[in-house]
């Protein structure tokens, strides 16, 4: 190991490498990963249930696990083996039979179990199988514990998007869980950092700009002339940044609003910046794309809708309900651990003693008893680290008008062994792209539609710092890194809820978020994307789905050490001169890797001829006998509300409604 790496603390004994439930990955690959499950489950059942006393360990309580999380090693290799046509051992018949088997324990899967139980009754036998070692899917809770202080962070799906616009079914579930705005203990202190004189800053790395320099008071997307004067940007870049972010210039003068709209819908945001606004090429990556997309991956109209810089002088009316609008911001609602807090409450509704009683605020700091999830005597069971490899009907359909009393057989891998369970009904709450491999008998048209769901690539990294004194000394609470692997690091918000109390003084430990930039989408950060792909990023204009596929491969092949080195080196450089020691002051790192992240739907930049056609999601989500599909892919929209809506639909489609009148006679 180099001296530089040692100084960064790369040799320090925190959980740094790719671990599978505490077991290091070896040449055994996926089989070794799967074999860890039963042993850990047994230890979890034997362990005492710990709440706020700190006795929980990463072995018994997954949110405390650090290292490479999200779609962690052991969670996806079995699915890739299925995709690649590899063979699996013969299945052991467990003799277990359920009224409903749900494949996938994310928000859709948990909501499907909730809705089914509500319709079928509390004694309905339900099994939820999930390939991860934790439930919630992208709704992921990260926890840290240091000097008896519990710190909570979101590791994935972050907030409820505009819940006032949700359907009756989805918002009813939220209300039945007791989640609501206005709880007395729920508040964010937005004044503490300001009272200490802290403000956003931008750090320019010497590797890119010739010398390390921290410039407080601005960022490339929100600059002032005074701030730009202190930056090392070339003069043309400075001038173009100020112009594109603040000036009201009509770059399309002479065109009607309809003509402007048509042109914006036919070009990428990158092309707009370069060829219409005519900025310096170095400005484009500083804009951080839009949403989870790079600037070349979506239309300029979409960038305008998502309030990216450069359109303020066009004189166009922005379509309503932009997620970046003030109306949206006031409607959105987040919880300290993101939407994983919804998942925990659904689990408690299904398995009441899995989480302590109390309202959603009172249980925020309580810990789920994972030993209670898969007990034989309870109606609903959640079985983790179980990779489903086959779903099929056990018998052909009966006569017309007869009730369908057939069963499905579900085969999954656990502990290196294939096991078989049966279900009268099945909801596939996994991603669309795996469904054709689980159910190869599906119609070809439906399989093609399922494969059309190509997800974005995301990451959320949370880092436990010993304290935040270096930030206080520099008077900054968030640092932007232009043209760097991580685009931003920021202190956790001062969030209160129930017994949750944030780090109030700089001497206390704190979670620091390391993001790609404006959001979690890796493709919006061209430097991160390029490094993950070994220095060869996609050519500008490559179709978005292909860019996602390339980024996904790069992300899965990049070791944890690459992320750790970037975290330590960027923090050490930005916090230089404050006494910060990355080897001493970085205590834990959790990289939430989402190789299959946001649902993205259709992209009109690359498929304009398909505008107005029936969406492939309609064909993809069609029921198949006793098997239905529920996930955000089925709605084409990446929100928690969509996931819950699709769960309701999938459960409704399982109801036979036999009243003597039928659609087919």
Lateral strand order in the biggest sheet? 3-24-19-23-21-20-11-12
User: Percent range for helical residues?
Assistant: 25-40%
SS element count, helices: 24
Shape: globular
Rg, Cα atoms, Å: 25 Å
Q: Tell me the total number of β-strands.
A: 25
The residue-averaged pLDDT reads: 92
Structural class: alpha/beta
Low-confidence stretches: 16-54
Amino- and carboxy-terminal Cα gap? 74 Å
Query: Biggest sheet: strands, sense, closure?
Result: 8 strands, mixed
Write out key terms for the chains shown.
alpha/beta; 5-stranded parallel beta sheet; 31% helix; 24 helices; globular; single chain; 665 residues
Structure notes:
The chain has 665 residues and is α/β, with parallel strands linked by helices. The chain is built from 24 helices and 25 strands. The strands form 7 sheets. It has an 8-stranded mixed sheet. Helix 4 (107-120) packs parallel to helix 15, helix 4 packs parallel to helix 24 and helix 5 packs across helix 24 (640-654). The radius of gyration is 25 Å and the shape is globular. Mean pLDDT is 92; it is low at 16-54.
């Amino acid at each position: 190991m180099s001296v530089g790496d040692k100084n960064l603390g790369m040799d320090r004994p925190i959980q740094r490498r790719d671990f599978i439930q505490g077991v290091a990955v070896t040449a055994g690959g996926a089989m070794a990963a799967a074999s860890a499950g039963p042993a850990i489950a047994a230890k979890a059942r034997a362990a005492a249930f710990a709440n706020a006393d700190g006795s929980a360990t990463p072995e018994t309580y997954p949110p405390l696990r650090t290292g490479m999380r999200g779609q962690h090693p052991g969670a996806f290799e079995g699915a890739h083996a299925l995709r690649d046509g590899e063979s699996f051992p013969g299945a052991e018949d467990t003799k277990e039979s359920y009224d409903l088997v749900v494949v996938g324990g994310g928000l859709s899967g948990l909501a499907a179990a909730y809705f089914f139980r509500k319709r079928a009754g509390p004694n309905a036998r339900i099994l939820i199988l999930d390939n991860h070692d934790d439930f919630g899917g992208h709704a992921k809770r990260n926890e840290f514990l240091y000097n008896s202080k519990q710190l909570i962070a979101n590791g994935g799906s972050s907030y409820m998007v505009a819940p006032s616009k949700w359907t009756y079914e989805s918002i009813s579930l939220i209300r039945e869980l007791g989640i609501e705005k206005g709880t007395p203990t729920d508040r964010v202190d937005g004044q503490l950092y300001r009272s200490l004189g802290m403000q956003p800053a931008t750090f320019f790395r010497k590797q890119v700009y010739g010398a390390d320099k921290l410039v407080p008071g601005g960022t490339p997307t929100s600059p002032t002339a005074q701030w730009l004067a202190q930056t090392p940007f070339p003069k043309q870049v400075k001038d173009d940044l100020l112009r594109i972010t603040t000036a009201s210039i009509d770059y399309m003068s002479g065109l009607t609003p309809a003509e402007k709209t048509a042109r914006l819908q036919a070009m990428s945001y990158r092309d707009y910046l370069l060829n219409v606004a005519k900025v310096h090429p170095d400005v484009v990556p500083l804009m951080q794309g839009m949403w989870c997309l790079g600037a070349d991956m979506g239309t300029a109209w979409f960038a305008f809708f998502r309030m990216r810089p450069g359109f303020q002088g066009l004189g166009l009316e922005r379509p309503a309900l932009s997620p970046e609008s003030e109306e949206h911001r006031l409607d959105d609602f987040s919880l300290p651990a993101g939407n994983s807090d919804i998942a925990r409450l659904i689990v408690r509704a299904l398995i009441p003693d899995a989480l302590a009683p109390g309202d959603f605020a009172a249980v925020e700091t309580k810990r789920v008893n994972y030993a209670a999830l898969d007990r034989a005597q309870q109606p609903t069971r959640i079985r983790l680290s179980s990779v489903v490899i086959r779903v099929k009907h056990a018998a052909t359909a009966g006569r017309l008008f007869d009730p369908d009393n057939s069963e499905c057989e579900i085969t999954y891998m656990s502990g290196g062994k294939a096991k078989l369970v049966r279900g009268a009904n099945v909801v596939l709450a996994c991603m669309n792209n795996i469904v054709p491999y689980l159910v190869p008998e599906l119609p070809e048209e439906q399989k093609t539609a399922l494969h059309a769901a190509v997800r974005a690539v995301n990451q959320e990294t949370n880092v436990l710092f010993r304290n935040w004194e270096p930030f206080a000394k520099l008077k900054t609470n968030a640092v932007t890194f232009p043209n760097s692997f991580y685009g931003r690091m920021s202190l956790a918000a001062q969030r209160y809820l129930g017994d949750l109390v944030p780090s109030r003084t700089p001497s206390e430990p704190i979670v620091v978020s390391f993001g790609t930039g404006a959001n979690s989408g890796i493709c919006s950060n061209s430097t991160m994307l390029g490094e993950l792909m070994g220095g060869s990023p996609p050519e500008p204009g490559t179709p978005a789905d292909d860019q996602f596929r390339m980024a996904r491969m790069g992300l899965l092949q990049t070791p944890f050490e690459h992320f750790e080195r970037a975290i330590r080196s960027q923090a050490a450089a930005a916090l230089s001169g404050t006494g910060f020691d990355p080897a001493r002051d970085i205590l834990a790192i959790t990289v939430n890797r989402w190789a299959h992240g946001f649902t993205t739907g259709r992209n009109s930049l690359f498929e304009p001829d398909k505008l107005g056609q029936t969406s492939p999601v309609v064909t993809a989500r069609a029921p198949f006998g006793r098997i239905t599909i529920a996930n955000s892919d089925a709605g084409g929209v990446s929100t928690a509300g969509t996931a819950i809506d699709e769960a309701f639909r999938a459960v409704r489609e399982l109801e036979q409604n036999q009243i003597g009148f039928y659609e087919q006679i």
